[in-house]
Write a structure and sequence with these properties.
Pfam families: RnaseA. The protein is α+β, with helices and mostly antiparallel strands. The chain has three helices and seven strands; from the N terminus they run ααβαββββββ. A hairpin with a 4-residue loop joins strand 2 and strand 3.
Length: 156
Protein backbone atom coordinates (compact mmCIF):
# COMPACT_ATOMS: atom_id res chain seq x y z
CA UNK A 1 0.00 0.00 0.00
CA UNK A 2 1.26 3.48 -0.84
CA UNK A 3 2.05 5.56 2.21
CA UNK A 4 0.74 9.09 2.71
CA UNK A 5 4.22 10.53 2.22
CA UNK A 6 4.67 8.70 -1.11
CA UNK A 7 1.22 9.79 -2.27
CA UNK A 8 2.02 13.42 -1.39
CA UNK A 9 5.28 13.27 -3.39
CA UNK A 10 3.45 11.73 -6.34
CA UNK A 11 0.91 14.58 -6.42
CA UNK A 12 3.63 17.22 -5.98
CA UNK A 13 5.53 15.81 -8.97
CA UNK A 14 2.32 15.55 -10.99
CA UNK A 15 1.41 19.13 -10.01
CA UNK A 16 4.70 20.50 -11.36
CA UNK A 17 4.28 18.56 -14.60
CA UNK A 18 0.68 19.71 -14.92
CA UNK A 19 1.77 23.31 -14.30
CA UNK A 20 4.38 23.07 -17.06
CA UNK A 21 1.86 21.58 -19.49
CA UNK A 22 -0.75 24.25 -18.67
CA UNK A 23 1.81 27.07 -18.97
CA UNK A 24 2.94 25.77 -22.37
CA UNK A 25 -0.69 25.48 -23.51
CA UNK A 26 -1.40 29.07 -22.46
CA UNK A 27 1.67 30.35 -24.29
CA UNK A 28 0.75 28.42 -27.44
CA UNK A 29 -2.85 29.65 -27.20
CA UNK A 30 -1.53 33.23 -27.10
CA UNK A 31 0.50 32.63 -30.28
CA UNK A 32 -2.40 30.97 -32.04
CA UNK A 33 -4.73 33.79 -30.93
CA UNK A 34 -2.34 36.29 -32.55
CA UNK A 35 -2.24 34.12 -35.68
CA UNK A 36 -6.05 33.86 -35.78
CA UNK A 37 -6.28 37.66 -35.46
CA UNK A 38 -3.78 38.00 -38.33
CA UNK A 39 -5.89 35.69 -40.49
CA UNK A 40 -9.10 37.56 -39.65
CA UNK A 41 -7.56 40.92 -40.49
CA UNK A 42 -5.28 40.07 -43.44
CA UNK A 43 -6.19 36.78 -45.12
CA UNK A 44 -8.78 36.38 -47.88
CA UNK A 45 -8.18 33.52 -50.28
CA UNK A 46 -9.53 33.20 -52.80
CA UNK A 47 -10.46 36.86 -53.00
CA UNK A 48 -14.16 37.18 -52.31
CA UNK A 49 -16.15 38.68 -55.13
CA UNK A 50 -17.56 42.08 -54.39
CA UNK A 51 -17.02 44.26 -57.40
CA UNK A 52 -16.71 47.90 -56.45
CA UNK A 53 -17.88 47.12 -52.93
CA UNK A 54 -15.28 44.47 -52.02
CA UNK A 55 -13.57 46.60 -49.37
CA UNK A 56 -16.78 47.87 -47.81
CA UNK A 57 -18.13 44.31 -47.55
CA UNK A 58 -15.02 42.58 -46.22
CA UNK A 59 -14.10 45.32 -43.75
CA UNK A 60 -17.61 45.13 -42.30
CA UNK A 61 -17.68 41.32 -42.34
CA UNK A 62 -14.33 41.11 -40.51
CA UNK A 63 -15.36 43.68 -37.87
CA UNK A 64 -12.85 46.30 -39.03
CA UNK A 65 -15.36 49.08 -39.62
CA UNK A 66 -16.94 49.44 -36.20
CA UNK A 67 -17.03 51.02 -33.70
CA UNK A 68 -14.63 53.12 -35.80
CA UNK A 69 -13.52 52.75 -39.40
CA UNK A 70 -10.05 51.24 -39.63
CA UNK A 71 -8.34 53.76 -41.90
CA UNK A 72 -6.33 51.20 -43.89
CA UNK A 73 -6.10 47.42 -44.02
CA UNK A 74 -4.50 44.94 -46.42
CA UNK A 75 -5.73 41.47 -47.39
CA UNK A 76 -3.41 38.81 -48.81
CA UNK A 77 -4.91 36.51 -51.45
CA UNK A 78 -2.83 33.34 -51.25
CA UNK A 79 -2.70 30.14 -49.22
CA UNK A 80 -2.07 30.16 -45.49
CA UNK A 81 0.95 27.91 -46.10
CA UNK A 82 2.59 30.31 -48.58
CA UNK A 83 2.05 33.25 -46.22
CA UNK A 84 3.43 31.25 -43.27
CA UNK A 85 6.45 30.23 -45.39
CA UNK A 86 7.54 33.90 -45.31
CA UNK A 87 8.30 33.24 -41.63
CA UNK A 88 10.75 30.58 -42.80
CA UNK A 89 12.76 30.00 -45.95
CA UNK A 90 10.55 32.14 -48.21
CA UNK A 91 11.24 35.30 -46.22
CA UNK A 92 14.23 37.51 -45.57
CA UNK A 93 14.80 38.88 -42.04
CA UNK A 94 14.65 42.64 -41.62
CA UNK A 95 14.90 44.36 -38.23
CA UNK A 96 13.41 42.67 -35.17
CA UNK A 97 10.92 39.98 -36.12
CA UNK A 98 10.03 41.58 -39.47
CA UNK A 99 10.24 39.30 -42.52
CA UNK A 100 10.17 40.43 -46.16
CA UNK A 101 8.71 37.97 -48.66
CA UNK A 102 10.98 36.72 -51.43
CA UNK A 103 8.03 36.48 -53.81
CA UNK A 104 5.17 38.82 -54.56
CA UNK A 105 1.65 38.12 -53.35
CA UNK A 106 -1.61 39.38 -54.79
CA UNK A 107 -2.93 41.81 -52.16
CA UNK A 108 -5.75 44.29 -51.78
CA UNK A 109 -5.38 47.41 -49.64
CA UNK A 110 -8.59 49.02 -48.46
CA UNK A 111 -8.35 52.72 -47.55
CA UNK A 112 -11.06 54.97 -46.17
CA UNK A 113 -12.26 57.56 -48.66
CA UNK A 114 -11.73 60.92 -46.98
CA UNK A 115 -10.44 61.42 -43.45
CA UNK A 116 -13.27 60.37 -41.13
CA UNK A 117 -13.12 57.22 -39.02
CA UNK A 118 -16.82 57.56 -38.15
CA UNK A 119 -19.17 54.95 -39.67
CA UNK A 120 -20.65 54.37 -42.13
CA UNK A 121 -17.27 53.54 -43.64
CA UNK A 122 -16.60 53.91 -47.35
CA UNK A 123 -13.41 52.33 -48.69
CA UNK A 124 -11.50 52.43 -51.94
CA UNK A 125 -9.64 49.38 -53.23
CA UNK A 126 -6.06 49.11 -54.45
CA UNK A 127 -5.30 45.57 -55.67
CA UNK A 128 -1.91 44.56 -57.07
CA UNK A 129 0.94 42.05 -56.71
CA UNK A 130 3.36 43.19 -54.00
CA UNK A 131 6.02 41.95 -51.64
CA UNK A 132 4.71 41.63 -48.10
CA UNK A 133 6.37 42.44 -44.78
CA UNK A 134 5.10 40.58 -41.74
CA UNK A 135 6.01 39.98 -38.10
CA UNK A 136 6.40 36.34 -37.10
CA UNK A 137 6.22 34.62 -33.71
CA UNK A 138 7.08 30.93 -33.39
CA UNK A 139 6.96 30.50 -37.15
CA UNK A 140 3.50 32.06 -37.58
CA UNK A 141 2.57 35.45 -39.06
CA UNK A 142 1.03 37.69 -36.40
CA UNK A 143 1.19 41.20 -37.89
CA UNK A 144 1.11 42.73 -41.37
CA UNK A 145 3.35 45.76 -41.73
CA UNK A 146 1.17 48.14 -43.76
CA UNK A 147 2.75 49.27 -47.02
CA UNK A 148 6.05 50.62 -45.77
CA UNK A 149 8.83 51.21 -48.27
CA UNK A 150 11.06 48.31 -47.31
CA UNK A 151 13.62 47.45 -49.91
CA UNK A 152 14.70 43.88 -50.47
CA UNK A 153 17.83 43.26 -52.48
CA UNK A 154 18.50 39.67 -53.43
CA UNK A 155 22.14 38.87 -52.79
CA UNK A 156 23.84 36.88 -55.53
Amino acid sequence: MIGLKSLNLLFKGFGVGLFIILAAALIMDNYTADYRKFLREHYDNPKNKGGDYYCNKIMQKRGLSSPKCKMMNTFIHDTKQKITDVCGDQGVPLSGRLRHSMAQFWVTTCKVKGFSDTPPCDYREDASPRYIVIVCKNGLPVHYEEDKNYQYFKLI
